[in-house]
Amino acid sequence: MELHNALMPNPDVAMRFRSSADPTPVVMLNLLRFRPRAVYADGRQSDLTGEEAFMIYSAAMNKIVTGFGGRFIVSALVDELVIGSGELVWHRVAMVEYPSRQAFIAVASSPEVKEAAVHRHAGLEGQLLISTRLQSLLGKPVGAGERASA
Fold first, then answer.
1. Which of 39, 43, 72, 114 is deepest in the core (most CB within 10 A)?
2. What is the pTM of this model?
3. Has residue 5 been placed in a domain?
């Protein structure tokens, strides 16, 4: 299995995601790898780690996502690889729920996100962003805001 870190979406995948009329909630699974030190595109000097810069972005995103009816479900530090083998490349995982794909697109294209994204780009070395749908452990769909318990 080969995966490629990126900071921006593949245009074909983004177009397909954007054109979907699926009205159900979407949960975005973020696999995050941070730079050792933040590197700002405008050349500003910073003593921040990549993770610290990303957390500035994350705090802004929490407010923005909530304003669009979404929520941060979980954010966790990656500890160790328990099943499988290979290099463990992720530092943090996060799951963010949006009321729909269209809500995600509205958030992603908002001016507030563009303003906060400077910290995202400074902090991230790479990312995988995976679109998911909540289900119970028994495979039943879960509505917006519900917990995915059995």
1. 39
2. 0.82
3. no
